[in-house]
Amino acid sequence: MLKNSNRRGSFWMFLTLLILALFLVFVVYPLIMVLYKSVIDPKGGGLTFENFTRFFTRKYYTNTMINSFKVTLVATTISAVLGLLMAYITRSVRIAGSKTLNILIVVSYLSPPFIGAYAWIQLLGRNGLITKVVNALLPGTDFGGIYGFAGIVLVFSLQSFPLIYMYVAGALQNLDNSLNEAAESLGAGNPRRVMSIIVPLVLPTVLASSLLVFMRVFSDFGTPMLIGEGYRTFPVVLYNQFMGEVTNDDFFSAALCVIMMLITLVFFFVQRRVSRRHTYSMTALKPMEPKRVSRKVSILSHGFVYLVTALALLPQLMVISTSFLKESTPGMFTSTLTLDNYLNTIVAKNNKVIANTYIYGIAAIILVVVIGVLISYLAERKRSPVTSTLDTLTMLPYIIPGSVIGIAFLYALSRPPLMLSGTATIIIIALAVRRMPYTIRSSTAIIGQISPSIEEAAISLGASELRSFRQVTLPMMLPGILAGAIMSWITVISELSSSIILYRANTQTLTVSIYVEVIRNNFGNAAAYSTVLTVTSVLSLILFFKLTGRKDISV
Fold first, then answer.
1. Is residue 204 within 8 Å of 278, Cβ to Cβ?
2. What is the C-alpha to C-alpha distance for residues 459 and 9, in angstroms, rounded to an integer?
3. Collapsing DSSP states into helix, strand and coil, what is residue 534?
4. Is-contact 233 219, C-beta < 8 A?
5. What are the pLDDT tens digits along the chain (555 aa)?
6. 541: closest CA among 100, 53, 45, 59?
7. In this structure, are residues 497 and 406 in contact, taking their beta carbons and an 8 Å threshold?
8. Distance between terminal CA atoms of the chain?
9. Mind listing the domains of the chain with CATH numbers?
10. Largest Cα span, the chain
């Protein structure tokens, strides 16, 4: 009996060490290479901090960081206000079509922010549809579009508020409405009840989700690259330094990566601290239910919710509609309906962009699910210093921006013995590494809800520990795993920041192709690719609802 126990312990320890070795090779080693390059003199090979000195002593570079903080703070604040208002109104006021609206809000969040930037160029760019109308109606004005700070903030705000909306909507579901009713019975008006009861209770959720938005917006380079023009942000400078066509500097780029990692690391720990210190535990004995309100309040509520949802969805609608229009000159569409954009991208080019997206995405999700479930099981059921170390290492990709991971992979995996640069393998691994923390956290939560006594009962009946995991625990986790895998799949196929660094001509994905076509002013082709990506995301979301039986998404 002792021999079998030792054998089982050896198997799980071997599995732990194997997964740990994979993370050391594909996460820790690339990051060490970034740190190494950032402090090495490219000429003499000695230790130097010249790259960091260069950044902090030149106004051009420090201004890009200040610009990034300005954009991020303003966009996060607007997103938080919009998300909180949308969640409260839809949870407290009876809104016609609220379930459909909830799905549409989630759909607006699924596409990458840079697609929103491209769509708003079509609407409010120099030759945009709305720009032409404004200049025609107001002859004295010369509206030049939304390029720069305002445009970046607009795109990020409308694309990020759904994340806060989903978190706050979930928090409001767990809110006990009897507190609200008690305040009402004591004579408190609705505004006072909201500010004194509702807002303080959901504030931890608002702050935690806002910090997630902050990290996401700060590290995004696609939107500022497309719509920023002269307003340069830190991620844009990093991308240009590493991928510059005229000149690039690997060592300075590494220093920029380290600075970005430190910034996101600080905000990650701030988020953890906020989440832990300002968390309320409440049992919703009487959950908040939407109710009928006065006609005036109802009209205002419906108008606000519909308007915000329409603005958030406008980029997708614009992209889909222009994908079926003939392009006369770059960025100029006629009213002629055509399938040329799809023929040009999918048929005429005879490329593998869509196939690459699906193949890489499925392969990444398989890795994410298999390794993620094993890590969560080991961390929850086989606790030890080794599994705790492994669990901590898995959070690194959650903190680190995708562009930094892409650069780190090229530094570390472009030399023997791996030599993975330019291959599909390096993109699949990058996608898997980026999304694995989400699956691990959700799987750990699922395992935490399964009593260990169930596995112990199977073992007492003669099943091995591995068989108990395979035939008892895993089937119980499967519904949650599948749901999480679908949501991870949606984010994987929308990934740009690491893919744009790692791709080659034969490994392009949909997001990379959209970005490349926009840069080349082939807006019709970009619209066709974007539509394929949007339709794929929506179908995946429908599958998620089908498998889970849910009618909305809240986190």
1. yes
2. 14
3. helix
4. no
5. 444 555 555 778 888 899 999 999 999 999 999 999 998 887 777 888 898 999 999 998 899 999 999 999 999 999 999 999 998 888 888 888 888 888 888 888 877 777 778 788 888 877 777 877 877 777 766 776 788 898 899 989 998 999 889 888 877 776 666 666 665 665 565 666 666 677 777 777 788 788 888 888 888 888 888 888 888 899 888 888 888 655 567 888 899 999 998 988 888 777 677 666 655 555 555 566 777 878 888 899 899 999 999 999 888 888 888 888 887 766 677 778 888 888 888 775 557 888 899 999 999 999 998 998 888 888 888 888 888 888 888 888 888 888 899 999 999 988 888 889 889 999 999 999 988 887 887 777 777 777 777 777 777 777 777 777 777 778 877 777 777 788 788 888 888 888 889 998 889 999 898 888 888 888 888 888 888 888 888 888 888 777 776 666 555
6. 100
7. yes
8. 45
9. 1-33+356-507 (1.10.3720.10), 49-338 (1.10.3720.10)
10. 90
**Residue 303: phi, psi to the nearest 5?**
-60, -45
Q: Could you tell me how many residues make up the chain?
A: 555
